Amino acid sequence: MLIILNNKCNFTLNQFKQYSQELTTIKTQHELVLCPTNIYLSITPKSEIVLGAQDISMYHEGSKTGEVAAKQLKSMNVEYVIVGHSERRLYLNENDKQITEKLRRSLEQDIIPILCVGETIGDYQQVVSKQLEILKNIEHFENVIIAYEPVWAIGSGKTPTIKQINEVISFIKKIYPQNKVIYGGSINEFNISNLKSNLIDGYLLGGLSLNSERLKAFLENLE
Ligand code: PEP
């Protein structure tokens, strides 16, 4: 299974050094992908943990002040990138046009994009299918990993039931049968026992990713 660790905008340098060192002691059969703040990519200790980024520029490299281009991420051995996280859609007004370009830039560099989708409130079908429509404009869209993250579940301590998650993932897989689909939103070391399913290809962890001991407990309970 794919386990994405989204550190978001957390850790000072010394905190990150200690945390990332602790991560190197984790033994797991799952593929762990660490997405630190970009400035820490180069100091992440070498280990079995794969590197990911939390965002990517929609532009090619060059005169784009403040941006981090796909080619640059690739040169840092980044293998995955989170695209269209709800926090970026909300706080940075990221739109479908930008998200489409970000998916294209990632795939051009063989960086696997993890496209986040999910409803804010109410019925998921309309929101999720609309957010996924952009895949129709993407060459090799089958290489995009879809992360179902109901916005109301992110950081709230609330999760859908496994029945509800299965229903949404089945809905997504019916439209995009070739794509991997992972779940994210308030997953922790305790609720994981009730949130496993054959339909889920992995999990995206926000808050839980920040604590290596809790992460180890999660991985034990996942096995
Ligand atoms: C997220 O932000 O993508 C996320 C899943 O966060 P959390 O696990 O904290 O809900």
Written description of the protein model:
By secondary structure, the chain is of the alpha/beta class. The chain contains seven helices and eight strands; from the N terminus they run E-H-E-E-H-E-H-H-E-H-E-H-E-E-H. It has a single domain, classed as TIM Barrel (Alpha-Beta Barrel). The model has no long low-confidence stretch (mean pLDDT 97). Bound molecules: phosphoenolpyruvate. Residues 6, 149, 154-155, 184-187, 204-208 line the site of phosphoenolpyruvate.
**Which strand order spans the largest sheet, edge to edge or round the barrel?**
1-2-3-4-5-6-7-8
- Helical fraction equals 25-40%
Please, what is the CATH homologous superfamily? Aldolase class I
End-to-end Cα distance, whole Å, is 10 Å
Q: What profile does the largest beta sheet have? A: 8 strands, parallel, barrel
Gross morphology is: globular
Could you tell me the CATH topology label: TIM Barrel
Radius of gyration from the CA trace?
Answer: 17 Å
Total DSSP E strands: 8
- What are the secondary-structure elements, in order, as H or E? EHEEHEHHEHEHEEH
Number of domains: 1
